[in-house]
Design goal:
This protein has 346 residues and is mainly α. It has one domain: Rhodopsin 7-helix transmembrane proteins (Rhopdopsin 7-helix transmembrane proteins, Up-down Bundle). It is built from eleven helices and no strands. Helix 3 runs antiparallel to helix 4. It is a multi-pass membrane protein.
Length: 346
């Protein structure tokens, strides 16, 4: 965020690389070792490709197999779309901004990029909140679940989440309410090629608590309740176990096992989300009270640690969800390797 130091000598100024060399008020480019820069570019590009194609595989898989067309997987489908869009529309530009310390696309696109970044982050946590509610109803209130939770009701909830997140994020960024009271700081750090998303104390508090800490606490509480109920159900089932079981009992047991497996898998997804984004929101909340003293490289690294959540979600499905695992194998074999596996089922 800092412009050129007034105490720099002429020789120092000549050696400084600028984002826009022909503009005297240009921001300076970051000085990084070439080998380090290339290595980080390769690492981040690999992360972006894994994020895009991994989540694209989830989208194709759920769309292709009717067996996966359930309310829960509809939420997972929308979440995968969020992560895929993040990989396509946000992460590449964030990569260049971090490593070059320059924004080459102008102020308007800077605001659009920041708004999209904020939108997709909010959509992600609200989707995971919806997942936790869905799993809570499925495990703790199974008799009424099928009547109350349908694809239609879930689609309405997803549409509301997207509309709310878009309206909130673009409203905050375009109205510049997030930087009210920070005008003097922005004037001091103003230069051509700068694109940094910062929040004043009020908006940092709202963003962190209302959109992360409070939903995160609610989700954690719901999953603790779910695992408590699952443990009780497993204990009851083991006590009622007999040598001979009817077909109906076996089907109920199999259904209960699938629900518990889904709850465990989605609980892992939620845990990864909280772990990836918690450091970022702690810094976002505390930074305005410390006069924005967090180094930009540290802040960007925390942002990318949060982005990593979008990369890991498809891996969680593949490792912990057998139906997705089998579906992934069929999709890859049939459409990527062109093998005749159309008779396989999941």
């Amino acid at each position: 965020m800092n412009v050129l130091n007034e105490n720099m000598t002429e020789a120092d100024v000549e050696n400084v690389l600028l984002c826009f060399p022909h503009q005297p008020d240009s921001c300076p480019r970051a000085h990084r070792f070439l080998a380090l820069k290339v290595a980080v570019y390769v690492l981040l590009l690999a992360t972006i490709l894994m994020t895009v194609f991994g989540n694209l595989l989830v989208i194709i898989t759920i769309s292709h197999f009717k067996q996966l067309h359930s309310p829960t997987n509809l939420i997972v489908l929308s979440l995968a779309l969020v992560d895929c869009l993040l990989g396509c529309l946000v992460m590449p530009f964030s990569m260049v901004r971090w490593l070059e310390r320059c924004w080459f696309l102008g102020d308007v696109f800077c605001k659009i990029h920041s708004s999209l970044d904020m939108t997709l982050s909010i959509v992600s946590i609200l989707h995971l909140s919806l997942v936790s509610i869905d799993r809570y109803l499925a495990i703790c209130e199974p008799l009424s679940y099928r009547m109350r939770v349908t694809n239609g009701t879930v689609a309405i909830c997803i549409a509301f989440i997207w509309l709310f997140s878009l309206a909130y994020s673009f409203g905050v960024i375009l109205s510049e309410v997030n930087i009210t009271g920070l005008e003097n700081l922005l004037i001091l750090s103003s230069c051509v090629g700068n694109c940094v998303l910062i929040f004043n104390k009020e908006n940092a508090f709202i963003l962190s608590f209302v959109l992360f800490f409070i939903p995160g606490t609610i989700m954690s509480s719901l999953y603790l309740k779910i695992f408590h109920v699952v443990r009780q159900q497993a204990k009851v089932m083991s006590e009622r176990a007999t040598v001979r079981r009817t077909s109906c009992e076996m089907n109920v047991q199999s259904s209960d096992h699938r629900e518990r497996k889904a709850a465990k898998t989605l609980g892992i997804i939620m845990g990864i989300f909280l772990l990836c984004w918690l450091p970022f929101f702690i810094v976002t909340l505390s930074d305005p009270f410390r006069n924005f003293s967090t180094p930009l490289d540290v802040f960007d690294a925390l942002v990318w640690f949060g982005y990593l959540n979008s990369t890991l979600n498809p891996l969680v499905y593949g490792f912990f969800y057998p139906r997705f695992q089998r579906a992934f194998k069929i999709i890859i074999s049939k459409y990527v390797l062109h093998l005749a596996l159309s008779t396989f089922t999941i």
